Amino acid sequence: MPSLLSIVVILVISMYTAVMGYSFGVETETDASLSTSFMRQIIHRPGDTSSYASRGWKLWNDGSFDKSGKAYEGFTVKYPRDFDEHHGTDVGGNFIGKPSVRLAFPQDSYMTPKTNFGEAYMTVSVDDGKDAVKTCYANPDMSAADRTLPTVVTVGGIDFRRGDVAEAAAGNRYDSRVYRALRGSRCYEVVLTVHTGAIGNYDPGTVAEFDKENAFSVLQKMLNTFQFTDKSPTS
């Protein structure tokens, strides 16, 4: 016959198993609410692609009226709740126009295992200058044989011109995927950028080469949510 101590131990183990089972259930849920999204970010490493199910993402809503003051021209894009938002004077990463927003992985992303990862972000910019229509599809890669962005892709029903730009400076590398679309007299640009350090600058064996697709896969999901929110002129 089991002793009283044995019975107590069995009950404690049973209760622990039940609680852990519930915790793992929360971990694998989609982001149906802020609470499950918050729990997911605690359980997973920041930047872990598996923690970025697109349900429950935040919405960035941006735009302005045209020069007539009647028609509103804008866009929306969704992004993970733990991403950092940059706008105003601290926005960079664009090749044309005025940067509207940069949505970036949190600074503690991809901390383990140690790699040469620096940062990754999406930058959305708008060019409404007088030459915006003429120059919208100009290739930002000045070394490329194609003077215009070479590829047409459709994302979320929007036709973009697509090109890649790789920049290196002072032991840093910036790999960018550039998407541009004309909308009326405005050129919209979405740039997905992954910044890494030159692997040769680290002591051998101290860091691993970062798999850039880990970050690009999340940025591409964000691009898939991009939509225009134009409103017709009012009478």
Task: Explain what you see.
This protein is of the alpha+beta class. The protein has one domain (54-228): Jelly Rolls. The chain has four helices and ten strands, in the order ααβββββαββββαβ. It has a seven-stranded antiparallel β-sheet, with helices on one face. The chain is globular, with a radius of gyration of 23 Å.
What kind of sheet is the major sheet?
7 strands, antiparallel
Give the number of helices: 4
In which range does the helix fraction lie?
10-25%
Number of domains: 1
Spatial order of the strands forming the largest sheet: 3-4-5-9-8-7-6
Q: Could you name the ranges where pLDDT drops below 50 across 5 or more consecutive residues?
A: 15-47
CATH topology, which one? Answer: Jelly Rolls
Mean pLDDT: 80
Give the secondary structure arrangement, pairings included.
Blueprint: H1 4-27, H2 34-43, E1 58-65, E2 72-79, E3 84-86, E4 98-104, E5 117-127, H3 132-135, E6 151-155, E7 158-169, E8 172-183, E9 186-197, H4 212-223, E10 227-228
Antiparallel strand pairs: 1-2, 2-10, 3-4, 4-5, 5-9, 6-7, 7-8, 8-9
Key features?
235 residues, alpha+beta, Jelly Rolls, 3-stranded antiparallel sheet, 4 helices, 10 strands, 34% strand
Short note summarizing the structure:
The chain has 235 residues and is an alpha+beta fold. The chain contains four helices and ten strands. It has one domain (54-228): Jelly Rolls.
